[in-house]
Amino acid sequence: MHVPFNGAGPAITSTIAGHTPIAFSSPASSIAQAKDGKLRRLQWRPESGSRRCQMCHDGTAGFPEIEGNFWVGLFVPAGTPADIVALLHREVGKAAELADMQQRLDALGFVAVSSSLEEASAVLKRDSAKWTKVIQAAGIKAE
Length: 143
Fold this sequence. Notes:
- The structure is a single chain.
- It contains 5 helices and 2 strands.
- By secondary structure, it is mainly alpha-helical.
- It has one domain.
- A two-stranded antiparallel ribbon has the order 1-2.
């Protein structure tokens, strides 16, 4: 049964309390509880190209056949001028490469990866198609 929550915090709290048997979250939302032994990680796929999340690969009960990587993107309205899009893309990419930013992201279980706008668009299209098939095959409906 799907139990909707308003964010990862309430979902993790409910799982720790035993009200829900499983929660899906990013490492950032649950890494501390997993380290404290309050949660048992079943799967985190921390790899992204040549960089790995340094906090995520210890003690995972892995299911290698399950792929559920997550990613975070920066989006702007469709009509945003191309020069503004290029500027944002360039500056966010620079920020992601800063050593202190990489350390902070790593501590939260994220791996900063810069890509071209075309590569990011291809990932979005690929993942949308992939998860559309999964949702349709499982008969999942919005509640």
